[in-house]
Specification:
Blueprint (H helix, E strand, L loop, with lengths): L7 E7 L3 E8 L5 E7 L5 H16 L6 E7 L2 H7 L7 E5 L5 H4 L26 E4 L2 E2 L5 E3 L3 H14 L3 E5 L8 H13 L4 E4 H4 L5 H32 L5 E4 L5 E3 H4 L9 H16 L4 E7 L4 E7 L2 E2 L1 E2 L3 E2 L2 E2 L4 E2 L2 E3 L5 E5 L5 E7 L18 H7 L6 E2 L4 E2 L2 H15 L3 H23 L11 E5 L7 H8 L4 E3 L6 H5 L5 E12 L5 H21 L8 E10 L6 E5 L6 H19 L11 E12 L20 E8 L3 E8 L8 E3 L2 E4 L4 E4 L3 E5 L5 E5 L4
Parallel strand pairs: 1-4, 4-11, 5-6, 5-9, 9-10, 13-25, 25-26, 32-34
Antiparallel strand pairs: 1-2, 2-3, 7-8, 11-12, 13-14, 14-15, 14-20, 16-19, 17-18, 21-22, 23-24, 26-37, 27-30, 28-29, 28-30, 31-32, 33-36, 34-35, 36-37
Helix pairs in contact: 1-7, 2-7, 4-5, 10-11, 10-12, 11-12, 12-13
Length: 692
């Protein structure tokens, strides 16, 4: 009897320089990984090359693929680079200046607001049109919708050649009737327009954030739609009809057919996938409180994971644009391998956020730039080998030394002190980002296991452990492919929200139950369309609460089952506890301070089969089999340091520092006083010798 045909799922993460590909065999759990250069002019080209490349490696036809999941930066890059087409904005009469007024806040660090210039609005004032008609905060009509104004607005944008329009009416979160009628009018008067309605993008109060989120959704819709549709069409040439999912910033995926209707949900797609991949790897290794540190060429992304779930926020932003959609709470700092070292006007050494990128790249690159970077400091000190990707990219130690010596001469520092200073500043930048997602959120950073991945994520791990007092660092195998692997661990997930402001003491239980039932109904219909049977679907309820008078809310879980008075009291108790953890105090015992419910939320989840984490067999013979040689490396002094080939290390092996552990896509410097232990899944665990 012949063996059943092999079935594989593929995850593809498109980065600025490389497209990472991971395929997992559904039967054995074995993974196959590869990289291919990204193609910024046409990202779909690199994507499809990656699919073909991994199938060739496994000697499989396209028919063997059961699903493809993709993390994309198309929407994020479009916003960060400000490459937005002209957009129109239709809002309620009297609110035409909502984008200019914004939050009337000046960013931290400007000192005197006189010097701060407000960034340009996403829609200039001459492309804003208003419509008479008014709802109150309960959704009841105060003044009827003015159809004449609506038609005039639609015709204005048609005649001006504006093909993308965002619509946000006052209190549309409570009643979407006026926005739906506006859409019908636009369809009649300007049928070719791409339209986003606030009641479909974000059914939540706060007019400014809802307006900007809706306009961002409209702005990226044409490009994301064209990109996803292009890949879908060309993917059918390789694997006809294969399910194609796109990563969302909330930690879920959505089918390509749905993503074109809600493109804003793909913001931070790549960092979200990396956090989830690292969470699964660390959870399998036995760690439930994890800090993820994804180090790339330009920046480092850090997140918090507790009990396998990354922390979510709705206070995120991309570039200058606040976005209230649920996204994994990622803090990004400009501290990557390409971050440039420079002197401030005061004569002090700075590192980043400017980056040499991949072109021209660090000074040590074959066609490198003329400014020293973090990578130049690493190669000068011997922390990384004089080549990248197993020898594909040779690095010039001499060019790096020359740049660092010139910088050191301006600072009156030796070569070693200059290079060490650059790495020290970079490490403190990363440490401050890690503090932002822990200490600033009421968490003790010392309770967490650091999980480093990405090409440069592990290079400063030992120093970060010293600065933050971390107990251990976990470095997964193939750390450069963790984001692509994470795409294979992700459930289908859709989020729904409805603002229902009410004091806890006056809560209308029937109304709350009705809103939750409506949100769950929407989630079920969406999951039906994704092919999940009702008995497979999982609903996750949460609520945003605050003390009356506060400006921001705290999100807490709402238990499954019947929502009775006792269940709402449990929610209030959970809010008091969460508030105490975040801010150090609560008013649980003070009846004068009322609690207020603000937003009700439902996440509809369609679970997928996660890859099995394969255990490795122990290898005999000690660590000598993995030694590839030695080189002089500077830690506190120059030391002749052994180098190890990571794939030759087996479970149970222990390498004491100083040592350098190398693999195809990354390097782990083990500082003196540290040890690296290989676990049963091939992860490296860095710990301090004194802690043993």
């Amino acid at each position: 009897m012949s063996a059943p045909p092999r079935r594989v799922r593929i995850g593809i993460d498109t980065g600025g320089t490389f497209t990472d590909v991971v395929a997992v065999d559904e039967e054995t759990g074995q993974t196959t990984t590869t990289k291919t250069p990204s193609t910024p002019a046409d990202p779909a080209e690199g994507f499809l090359t990656g699919v073909r490349k991994v199938l060739d490696l496994m000697d499989l036809p396209g028919e063997a693929v059961t699903a493809v999941s993709h993390g994309t930066t198309v929407a994020t890059n479009q916003l960060l680079e400000g490459k937005l087409d002209r957009i129109g904005f239709i809002t309620t009469e009297g609110y035409e200046s909502v984008l200019e007024i914004a939050r009337q806040s000046v960013p931290d660090g400007y000192g005197n607001s006189y010097f701060w210039v407000k960034p340009p609005r996403i829609v200039p004032a001459d492309l804003v049109r208003t419509v008479r008609g008014r709802l109150d905060h309960r959704g009841e009509e105060v003044r009827p919708f003015d159809e004449g104004d609506a038609r005039a607005a639609a015709r204005f944008f048609r005649d001006a050649g504006i093909a993308t329009v965002g619509v946000c009416f006052l209190h549309a979160y409570a009643n979407d009737a006026h926005e739906r009628r506006m859409l019908e009018v636009i369809r009649e008067e300007h049928p070719g327009a791409v339209v986003s309605l606030s009641s479909q993008v974000l059914r939540e109060y706060r007019e400014y954030e809802r307006s900007v989120t809706t306009l961002v959704d409209a702005a990226v819709k044409p490009k994301v739609g064209a990109y996803v549709t292009n890949i879908r069409t060309r993917l059918d040439e390789i694997a006809p009809g294969v399910p194609f999912y796109v990563m969302k910033s909330n930690g879920g995926v959505l089918s390509a057919g749905e993503v074109v209707h809600q493109p804003i949900t793909t913001m931070l797609s790549g960092p979200a996938a990396g956090a989830l991949g690292a969470a699964l790897i660390a959870g399998t290794a036995g760690f439930d409180r994890v800090l993820t540190c994804d180090g790339g060429g330009t920046s480092t992304d850090v997140t918090v994971v507790i009990d396998g779930e990354p922390t979510l926020t709705t206070e995120g932003s991309v570039g200058d644009y606040p976005s209230k959609i649920p996204m994994i709470d990622v803090v990004t700092v400009g501290a990557g391998g390409g971050s440039i070292a420079w002197l401030s006007p005061e004569g002090t050494l700075k590192v980043g956020p400017k980056s040499a990128g991949a072109d021209p790249g660090p000074m040590c690159y074959p066609s490198g730039g003329d400014q020293p970077t973090v990578t130049d400091a690493h190669v000068t000190l011997g922390r990384i080998p004089p080549h990248l990707l197993g020898g594909e990219i040779p690095l010039s130690v001499e060019a790096a030394r020359g740049g660092l010596e010139r910088l050191g001469a301006e600072l009156d520092l030796s070569l070693e002190k200059t290079a060490t200073g650059i790495l020290e500043i970079s490490a403190w930048n990363q440490a401050n980002a890690l503090r932002q997602v822990t200490v600033a959120r009421g968490l003790d950073v010392r309770d967490f296991t650091l999980t480093t991945f990405g090409g440069s994520g592990s290079l400063l791990a030992c120093r970060l452990m010293d600065i933050l007092g971390l107990p251990r660092t976990l470095v997964p195998p193939n750390p450069g492919n963790v984001s692509a692997f994470g795409l294979l661990t992700v459930d289908v997930r859709n989020d729904y929200v409805q603002t229902v402001v009410s004091r806890h003491a006056d809560l209308d239980l029937d109304r709350v139950r009705a809103v939750y039932a409506d949100l769950e109904g929407q989630a079920q219909v969406a999951l039906d369309g994704e092919g999940f049977a009702r008995d497979q679907q999982r609903m996750q309820r949460t609520a945003d609460l605050r003390y009356v008078g506060q400006a921001f809310e705290v999100r807490v879980p709402v238990a499954e089952g019947e929502l009775d008075a006792a269940a709402t009291e449990d929610v209030a108790r959970a809010f008091h506890a969460a508030h105490r953890q975040l801010y150090g105090y609560d008013f649980a015992d003070d009846p004068r301070q009322a609690v207020e419910w603000v937003n009700l939320r439902v996440s509809g989840i369609g679970p997928i089969r996660r890859p099995d984490m394969v255990e490795l067999d122990p290898e005999d013979g000690g660590t000598d089999r993995a030694v590839t040689g030695s080189r002089r490396v500077f830690f506190d002094d120059w030391v002749d340091t052994p180098t190890y080939n990571r794939p030759d290390l087996g479970p149970g092996d222990v390498v004491s520092g100083p040592a350098i552990i190398e693999e195809f896509g990354s390097t782990v410097p083990v500082h003196p006083g540290f040890r690296a232990t290989v676990d049963t899944h091939g992860n490296i665990l860095l710990t301090k010798e004194t802690a043993q």
